[in-house]
Amino acid sequence: MNIADIRAQFPILSEKVHGKPLVFLDSAASAQKPDVVIDAMSQMMRSQYANIHRGLHWMSERATEAYEASRSRVASFLGGAREEIVFTRNSTEAINLVAYSYGSLLKPGQAVLISEMEHHANLVPWQMLRDRAGIELRVAPITDEGDLDLDAYGRLLSDGKVALVAITHMSNVLGTITPAERLVTMAHDAGAKILLDGSQAVVHRKIDVQKLGADFYVFTGHKLYGPTGIGVLWARRELLDAMPPFMGGGDMISSVTFEKSIWAPIPAKFEAGTPAIVEAVGLGTAIDWVESIGYEAIGAHEATLTAHALRVLPEVPGFSVVGKPKERGGVISFTMDDVHSHDIATLLDRNGIAVRAGHHCAEPLMHRLGLTATARASFGVYTTEEEIDTLAETLKRIRQFFV
Fold it and tell me: Residue limits of the Aminotransferase class V domain (predicted)?
């Protein structure tokens, strides 16, 4: 993998911030976009844009073909059937869809099981379901190293009351890669369905929903080098068929009278209103681009970057990495003695370095870790070891400034 060639495909990486070359280490929040994605979306808006599905004219038919081709592309990417791909705005909406729709099939006395390391997007919808439907919400603990406590996970499943497990495939704070296939097997053995939040994991590793054996898988386009405003829910066909619609409106119906409506077949049943047409095309292009590089190369590059970061960053006085999971993706949260995380991020920004600081939409995890905030550096396919070195050297100067 030629990093220089890859970086040349991202026009924003040549920008300067506060007079310094941009060092973008915030890809876990949202990744930058390669030319090919920007061009595909621009080209569609310039030459092939119209509303889809309902038009009988040439332009609408071409736009429909492009939108549905992206659905087929996502299906082949995940290893599912195209009818099992529901486009949403993002992972958050996809999880809310499952919580509202599949959740409506749950009964009081049943439970949903999440973990201590969930993003708010995979916590708050289940709290809302709990309060609405009277189900129980259980939380599987993590170890001090930041791995899921599998013994506790098994105990929480053991009474057979858990109807659904909803758990991250990769923590956005700790970088922890959860043992997804084992979690799926344990959930199924206990009679539960399982949803995996792949928002972070899909960026770093090949996902095959058939091999994983999951029942639901969600991810968002903007972390995968695609646009914002487009996300994906994959679910097994029989589950989608049994679930009621999430929202009502145009495009999700077969017929409507004043007395009743008949829903369209899946996936249209879950896509009310005009969808994110151009964004779906951008996502399909982003997937093509990622697969043209290959997950093997991406994974090897990420492992090299992460190992390098874990070697040079702890040399910064007062620096502490948060968590030590058995398997980690390209995300490193950290603290530095005597310097608040927000000050770290602000001063790094003055040097052209973009990191994230705060609770990372995981407040309960912060409480579990005994922290109020961390700074977080996260890597993309375009990240270099030299950028990590720049981060380390700048952190040393920040530390000297405060001590």
Answer: 23-391
